[in-house]
Structures are given as structure tokens and as C-alpha cells.
Amino acid sequence: MFTPLRRFDAVKNRASSMTPRAPRSPSAPSGARRRAWLAVLSCSFAAATACAACGTRSTNPTSGGAPHETQTPAKQQRQVVDLFAFGRVLGTVAPCGCTTEPLGGVQYAFGYIESRSTPASRLVIEPGSLLFPDPAGGEAPTDEASWAQAEQRASLLTNRLGALGDGLVSGVGPFDVSSSEGLKALERWALPRVVANAPKLAELGLPGHRVAKVGDPALTIGVTAVLSPEFAKSAILGPLDSPVEALKREVSSMKSAGADLTVAIAHGPSSLAESLADANTGVDIIVVAIPVGLERSRVGKPVGRRGSAWILEPGEKLQSVTHLRLEIDRKAAPEGLPPATEWERRTPTSARARELERLDKKLEGLRGDVAADPNFVARLEREREQLVSAIENPPAPKAAVAATFEQVKITCHLEVDAPAKEALASYDGALAQQNRERFTGVRPPEPAPGEPSYVGVEECANCHTEAHEQWLTTRHAGAYKTLTDANKEFDLTCVGCHVTGFREPGGAEVVENAELQSVQCEQCHGPGSVHAEEPEKHGKPNAITLHTPKTVCDGCHTPEHSDTFEYAAYLRDIVGEGHGPEARAKLGDGPTGRALRQAGFEKAGGSCMKH
Q: How far apart are CA 608 and CA 610, in angstroms?
């Protein structure tokens, strides 16, 4: 038997000695109108968040700049408590970086949390399956080297989450115990975990719930977690009790312990959360751990209420976080929180800001249009004035508890958490050195007798000069440089799609790829050694694939890693004069890959540097 709390306490004690850092103001986008709008938003956000300090000045411990201002005396009776909920993290510390809006990044996720709350007034919910990727997914570790890398990511995540101390409660998921460590992983990467319906884990010392004290005066929050019955077939987790009965038991126990607010992690899809809400378990908030579908896995689902419970569904892999801010009038609720059904739901300032930006763009076009209906323009101007007023002076809450729910996309446009950024840089550096040493001299298998090998783009250029020049204009030609710029050229989760013939017979490996860096001719046309020796046979190109099917592209251009990929559009960038002019003519007019990517960047509010 082991006690996971032992190592967690050590992490928490180390975290308490960390020196807070001062805040850094985010840089504003260009444009006078944009600057003015952001100034309004900044002021309104400061007003909305200031009361979290409870009459004191507080600094953002993650970046430089001036401290946040305090609330006004008129609003000091309103206490602010912030809850942040993640979906499954699945061992992800940074996004791929190849999408037009790379969501995720541990430094930005914690940058958001640290800049929007104070340690004493927040609670972070991590639902489990934090440590490792889905064993059935494309990012699953498959060998000793990739498992070593996955374990380093698990340590990074555990250390940063553990630094939250009493401000964190974690669940347990099947992918936390999917490594060779098995159940011992819960001790090696110890966190304040809870699980209510797994007797085998209870025997190992994991409690059914935790009760956290948040804010001053303290709001008592009880947190529990249940696993979906589908995981009962996992021998390592053992048999599972009924999630409904386990939740009823733990909610009763948490309320007996004085919990003002009860939270349940539903480690399963939204259907599990809905069944828990329908069973009248008495829980106030349910966090969905497993969003289903590509879009929901990225940005989650808007918060909704089912019965007496609010259901929160954040995205996974740190791509988004659900932020719940409770503003509590302690005079109106001296005995504790009223039921969640009586909370006043508030519109997030960010939602109003987005609507203001939309209105500004619309008005900008109409003001210069002489044919525009002046009455319509005047109505939009009035709407704009009302929005600005609501942002600058949000209406005071009417209920004892005001709840603001927000789905926040984690992007590079957020503040940066310095400890997480430093940990990520250390991880990249250590990984680069580790894998360079591990894979130096390691080469793919030799081709079978008579089978072709890879020769590299310079050999192709000897005969196909014009095609080579066309290739140099494509993003394929710079694919490897994007990794070296980010110190990720030896990262096993990246390198395979940025070299040619990765781990194919006679192709590239992690380190041994000097002549096959970037996405070269042979990635699309096949290994060319036989073709180079005898370019033609019977008057036709010999031993080479002329037409590349979409399935070849799909190996790397997945929806998760290449969100704007369209075969015909991307092909328009690759073929042309000197390299398939006939194929280019057949494609005809239409969007190019570059155009789709540029539109994606504009929609995302600008591009991000590679992570």
C-alpha cells in the first residue's frame, strides 16, 4: 500500500517557497480603433476582477508590470471566488504549432489562471488522465524512447499543477495508469486526487472527496470524482461502483463536512454528466472530463444547467479552460450559498467585447457607404453605446450569488506563466540533448534487395531543376527549419512529419537525416534511387510515382495538426511551372493553401510563434 499524499505534500511545500513575480501588461494590437476598444476592455476587466483582492492590492505572480487595482468600497461586500476546470490533459504540454490557431500550452493556461485570480480565492479542477496520451491514439508512446519523453511531460505537468498546493483537486483517469508503472504512477506523479467509485483505488489511499477552503471568509468547496462504467473493464482500475450511488454518498458526506458548494468530476463523456444530473444527486457543478468530437475537444461546450446542476465541459489537452467566477454577497447569504438554481448568470465581459468588435467592423463599413440606411446605422450606434456602457459599468448583481461562466481558448495571445515557460524550455533542452545522444548513429533498416532507397532532394535537382526551384517556394521546403527554430528537431512527436521517409527503409531517422530534412520530392513521389540510376524505361518515367494521392498527405495533414488542409488548395501551391503545369491547369482557379492559412490566421487574431 502506498500513500500518494506523501509526495504531493512535498511538492506543495516546495511551491510555498516560490517567490511571486510582478505582472506584465499584454501588448495591444495595432490600429487606433482596436487600441481604443482594448483600453475600454482593459478598464472594464480590471473593474470586474478587482474585488477578488478583497480590499487589498495584489500582484500577478507570473509577469511584470503594475499590480491590479482593488475594488471600490461600495462593492467590498461582494466576495469573488474563481473556479477553473480542465478537460483531460493527456500528457500534452504544448500544441503542435502547425495549425492557424494552435490552442494549448502549459505556459498560457497557467498564465491565464494566475493573471485572472489570486491563490487564496481560486480552485483548479483537473479531471484525471493527466499523465499520458490515449494508448489508442496517434500520439501514444510506442517504444522506450517515446515513453521516456512521455514521462518527462508527466513530470512537468505534475510539478506545475502541484505548485497550486491546496488550490488544486485532481481526479483519476485510465490513462494515468497506462504506463509500465501501473498504479505506482499515482505515487510517482502524486497530486491531491479523488475518486469515489473505484474500491481498488480507495484501498490504496485515494479519498472519495476533498474539501477545500477558498477565500476569506472561507467558502467551503467539496470535490469528488466518478469514473464511467465503461472503464470497469480495465483490470488495473478494478471493478467500479455505480457512479450515481457513489456520488450521492460523497455529496452527502461533503455537505455533512460543511461544504457550501459541491463539485463532481464526471470522468466520461457528457452523457455521464447528464445521467448524474438527472439522478438528483444534489451536486451543484459537474465537470465533463471527456469532450467528444474534434471541435469540442478543442473548445469544449458552452455551460448549461440540467436539473439543479451546472454542467461544465472544457476542451482537452489544455486547449481551453472553463472559468467560473462567483460573486457572493455575504450579507445576503450569511449562512452559506443558496442553491445553484438561484444563482444569477452573468454575461462575461469578453463576450460583450467580442460583440463590440463585431459591431465596430460592421459600422466601419457602413459609415463610408452613402447608400446605407441612416436609421439602421443610428440603431447600431445606439447598440454600440449600450455595449460600451455595459463594459465600463457592468450592472450590479441582483442575486446573492452571481455566476459568470466563460469558455476560454488557450492561445499565445494570453499572458505567460514564467515558471511554466521556464519548465517548458528546460524540457525542450533536456529532450533535445537526450534524443540526440540516444539516436546518433541509429538509422532506419536497409531496403530489401532490389528495392529503392532515398537519395535526397539534391540528387533530384540534378535533373529536375525547375521542379526543385518550385519546391523551394513551398512551405514543405522549410518544414525542418520550423523545428530547429523551436529546438524541437529531435522531439519524437514532431520530427516524423518534418523529414522525408521517416523510419522507412533507407529513409530518415531522428538524428540521421542530413540529406532528408524537410518534406522533399521523395515524400510524395517515393524513394528515388532506382529512378536516379535509370530515369526512363520503355519511354516512361521509371520506378517513381508521378501522381500523389491524398492519402499520402493525410498522414501528416490531420485535422488536429493542419486545420486548413484541403487537398486541391494545397496542391495549387505545390504544382506549377516546371513541376506539373498540366496538373496545375486541371486544378483551375480556386483558393490556395497559402490563402486558406492566411484566412485562418486572420480569424484567429494573428499567428503564433512555434511552441
A: 6
Weakest mean pLDDT among 10-24, 129-143, 504-518: 10-24
Residue type, position 348, single letter: P
Element (H, E) at 126: strand 122-126
Beta strands in 187-294 (DSSP E): 209-214, 219-227, 261-267, 285-288
Contacts with 82 (C-beta within 8 Å, 6 or more apart), sequence order: 52, 116, 117, 121, 122, 123, 323, 324, 325, 326
pTM of the model: 0.84
Structural contact between residues 57 and 20, judged by C-beta atoms closer than 8 angstroms: no
Distance between first and last Cα of the chain: 40
Q: Exposed/middle/buried for 325, CB within 10 Å: 0-12, 13-18, 19+?
A: buried
In angstroms, the Cα distances linking 183 to 88, 129, 157, 194, 231 are 18, 13, 18, 14, 15
Q: How far apart are CA 104 and CA 93, in angstroms?
A: 8
Q: Which residues of 483-505 are buried (b: 16+ CB within 10 A; e: fewer)?
A: beebebbbbbbbbebbbbbbebe
The DSSP letter of residue 508 is: B
Phi, psi of 241 (to 5 degrees): -80, 170
For 493-511, how does the pLDDT look when each residue is reduced to its tens digit (9 = 90+)?
A: 999 999 999 999 999 999 9
Grid coordinates of 248: 450521492
Q: Kindly report the average pLDDT of the chain as a whole number.
A: 88
Q: b/e string for 388-426 if b means 16 or more Cβ within 10 A?
A: bebbeebeebebbbbbbbbbbbbbbebbbbbbbbebbee
User: Residue length, the chain?
Assistant: 611
Based on C-alpha coordinates, what's the Rg of the chain? 27
Amino acid at 288: V
Q: Are the C-beta atoms of residues 484 and 494 closer than 8 Å to each other? A: no
